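Let's practice the habit of predicting before peeking. Look at the sequence and jot down your guess about where helices and strands might fall. Then scroll down.
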Amino acid sequence: MIPTMSVNYPKRTLKRQENRNKLDTAASLLFSTKGYPGTTLEEVAEAADLHVQTLYRQFKTKEALAISASQKVLNECETRFATNFHNRDTFQIWREWMENSVTYLIDLGLKKNKRAQLRSASSLMNDNYILIIYSGYEDILTKYLAKDFQVNPQHHRLPRLVAGMLCSGNEAALKRCASKDGGPDRLDDKTFVVSESIAVVDDVESIFGKYIKLTRPKP
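Done guessing? Here is the structure:
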């Protein structure tokens, strides 16, 4: 039997990783609630309780920070799918992910410039963080929908088509709640925003759920 060996990282390396995690978390929260264009690196450093020079030692550009922060979220999403896919289909996992994510987002509170961004004609323009997140979500959903549909996404367009609808549907739900379609602004109404987001998943599933071929053991 080969004995396991623990790796003792230098304190400086551990501190650097701790700071990076703080910055990723702070950036993710601010980019989500204020919007990527409306968030400064100084604000991210302050939210992480670090000096801005510490941020610059980790990330040379705002885009580099967005990539790192988004990857943290995408890794969590991928883990959720990998852990639950043996007994739940893609729609079920995504519905729960959306409910938890939107609830968390609304609890944090959407800032004025994020609301204005949602109401604009091009809410995703120049928002590198959301674009990376949505692209990553689409890849994860495509991967698992292909398994559910029992098709090869290299040869069948259906998994990515459905994945795209689920991702864009989240933005559509937030736009509706931000009065983009003429109704009242209800972004502060957590119950309503969550219900709108879940309804999008239900609508897409009602059309494409019939294509699921992967069977799972009954509970």
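How did you do? The radius of gyration is 19 Å.
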